[in-house]
Each structure stands twice: as C-alpha cells, then as structure tokens.
Amino acid sequence: MRFPEFEGEWEVKKLGEVMDFKVTNSFSRENLNYEYGTVKNIHYGDIHTKFQTLFDINYESVPFINEEIDISRISEENYCKNGDVIFADASEDLNDVGKSIEIININEERLLSGLHTLLARPKKDIFHLGFSGYLFKSNSVRTQIQKESQGSKVLSISVGRISKIELSFPSVEEQKKISSFLALLDERIQTQSKIINDLKTLKIATAKKIFSGELRFKDDNGNDFSEWEDKKLGDISIKKSSNISANTLEENQGNFKIYGANGLLKEIDFYREEKPYIAIVKDGAGVGRLLLCEGKSSVLGTLDIIKNKEQTDLLFLYYLLETIDFTKFTTGSTIPHIYFKDYSKEIIGLPSFPEQTKIANFLSSIDSKIDIENQLLQKLEAQKKYLLQNMFV
Predict the structure, then answer these.
(1) pLDDT at 128 over 80
(2) From the record, what ranges are coiled-coil (predicted)?
C-alpha cells in the first residue's frame, strides 16, 4: 500500500547504521514525583501503559526526578531531543518488549530516559519528525524486535541486538505523508477514546446521584414514585456457586457461552443457568468485578452467580452492585476473596419495581451508547493496525 504520487525503492539500513544510542539512567519510581523538580524522567512502565506513540510533553503526565538525586554527571548529549526514539527494553509480554515512543515536542523542557529504556537518536536528518514513531510500530519492525528479544519470564532487548534489525524507509517527503496520515488517525482514536471515557464518567456520576436519592424519576403520569425502602442486599438477591473448572473445558465446543473472570471465555455444549443473571469475581486480582450474563450460559468456579429475588429488577440490581465498593469486604493476604455472607449485609435503598425499571433502562441507554462508541473505536484501531501492516515494507 502506497500513496500514488511516490515511486522508487525504499532504502534499507540496519538500525545501528542510522541511529546512535545514548546513556540512560536507572532511577526507580521511588526517585520520581509528579509535584516538583526541574528535570523529568521517562520510566519504562509509562511507555507500556500511557504514553502516546508520538510523545508531546505538553499532553503527557511525566514525573520529575527528586531534587535530592544527583544528576550533575549526566552529560548534555544524554538529555532527550525531538526526534529521539525511546524503547522499553523489558516486558513480561512478548507483544510489549521493545515498545517505543518518538519524542515530537519536548517544549524546551529537560527530559531524561530512565529505567529499562534505550534512547536512540538518528545520526542525521533522514527521518521526518513523527515517522520513526510509526516505523517502530509497524508489523515488519515489531516482528524483528520480538525475534531479537531474550529471556523466559521477563523478556528484554539489548542495544546490540536491536541494532541488528533492518529498517526500510522512503524519502523524507513520503515519510511526511505517511506520518501525517497516521497522526490524523491517531488523533481520531484519541478523540473517540475521550468520548467513551466521558460517557463512562457521566454514567458513574449519574448512578451516584440516582442511588443516593439526589436524582429521582417520575412515573408515566408525572407523579412522584413512593419512597425507597432500606434493605439488606441479601433481602433482594440470592447467591449460587459454580464448580466448573477451566481445565475440564479444553476440548469442549458448543453454542452456549461460559464466562470467566475477564468476560466471555468460550462456547461449550452445555449450560447451567436458564435465565440471565449477574456474575461476580469472588477471588483473585479481579475480585468484585461484575458481569451481566446471558441466559442459557454458565460461569467458572472463580465466579459466584447473583440472582434477583421477586420484585427486584435484575438490571437494576446489576447497576446497584456497580456502586458498591467490594474492596471493603475482601479477606486474605495472598489471594483476596469476597464472600456473599459479608457483602449481603450491605444496606441499600430499594425503590418500587416501576422506578427500578426506569432507572435500569436509563443507565442501560448510556451503556448502549458506550457500546456503540466502543465498536467505532475498535474499527479505527483495526484500520490503524491494517495500515501499520501494509504501509511499511
């Protein structure tokens, strides 16, 4: 895939031929803060989790190096500059080893490349600003980096090994066209992500007002609903356990959904629950996570099933549970666990069934909007992935 106005072969060079590596530091999180300082520091964890491909310091939250840390021996050439590429040299995940950002705007701030990073700087003006960021995200380059990584539990990439990978790049003018096009798509993805986050924030704020009684609904005739009753969660719901293990399902295939801690696990040839229900992760890292599950489905034994009693709307119960902080019910130091016998004592406000339905439908409409926007985001991200696979030789 190529813009029609360009032709000719792309140049091929090893990374070590076109980039020099500068010295980085090994300051840990304990040596950094977000409140004061004169020099900022790139931590490899932030490359993995939050920094954009094209790093503009005006739009990123970057920690300062603590003022008591002596950085006087760091030479000027090891401070970051526009056009530098910073790699995270370690990861537990093959997909993330060697993940990188390109600095496109440092805004004259003092910035260093820190713990578990490699700082690469083009030897001359062979790359248009912004092109390297996408080049190192391309399928051809990422595959090479992954092959050069070493380690078992923690994967790493060294300067020596990453310097061997081959980079294929066009003229600066074509680079400019490619990077500008992909930057526009990235901007659209960021905007779409903000739309989704704003909707999620709206839902949380609205649900808080609803379940605190600050926001009330009217009935279909414009009249007030009856006052809410104080109930224990156990008065309006019941718990059921599952004994299904993932190990027993490896070869099982079918048409009925089974859910695990992270959502839909797979489809199998049987189901345990006839009607829709709520599932809650009862132990492990995701303890307290909620799932709204379809009828004719099942859950693994790491989840409990929560069902609504009569005169309680299931969808209302789901949104009510979303407002509860389950961390206060956790027990166990190594593996956190929650028990229904504990959180079933939580006192909640229960409106009449018609008002429950109104509340559930209202919050569900926001969820539906979030789902639609998420689908659009997934399409944009798929488009970007396709372009990164096909626009680079």
Answers:
(1) yes
(2) 363-390
